[in-house]
Write a structure and sequence with these properties.
The protein is built from 5 helices and 6 strands; from the N terminus they run H-E-H-H-E-E-E-E-H-E-H. The protein has 150 residues and is of the alpha+beta class. It has one domain.
Length: 150
């Protein structure tokens, strides 16, 4: 009986992976606001706040530019994909969105860190536990300094 419980415990430990640290990706890139629709759809209150900010700024959704962390090209199946944290410029008002990012491969294998195996085998990214804040500045991240300078 104990022999059967050990493999089950190991499987449970593997399946409850922690979030992937996207700050280790180092790269960032711009993305259209519309690309964030799946993330924003997870929160009706966020959608309402965005609609209000768009009305106040007299901007259309397609005029909003965002930044996100970017999977580099070495990631066989995920290269170029943008993930949290996101920062969007509403013109004098910035929206910062953070999520818990989970990177998985075939059969649900989770990858918590950047490794050669993860870069080769990761096929999917999911984002959960959405939180956000509005600020008057882009932020302190390196990508914000780059973006504001352009």
């Amino acid at each position: 009986m104990i022999v059967r419980l050990v493999p089950a415990a190991l499987l449970l430990g593997i399946s409850s992976a922690s979030a992937f640290d996207t700050s280790k990706l180092v790269q960032f890139g711009t993305l259209p606001f519309d690309d964030l629709a799946p993330v924003i759809a997870k929160s009706a209150p966020l959608r309402q706040e965005i609609d209000k900010a768009l009305a106040e700024s007299n901007k259309k959704q397609e005029e909003i530019r965002c930044l996100g962390m970017r999977f580099p090209g070495q990631w066989k199946n995920l290269g170029g994909l943008r993930v949290s944290p996101y920062t969007c410029d509403f013109g004098g008002k910035w929206l910062q969105i953070h999520t818990a990012v989970r990177v998985t491969g075939r059969h649900g294998q989770a990858f918590d860190t950047i490794t050669a195996k993860a870069m080769k085998n990761a096929t999917d990214v999911s984002e959960t536990n959405l939180n956000w804040k509005w600020t008057s500045e882009c932020g302190t991240a390196a990508y914000c300094a780059w973006y504001v300078g352009h």
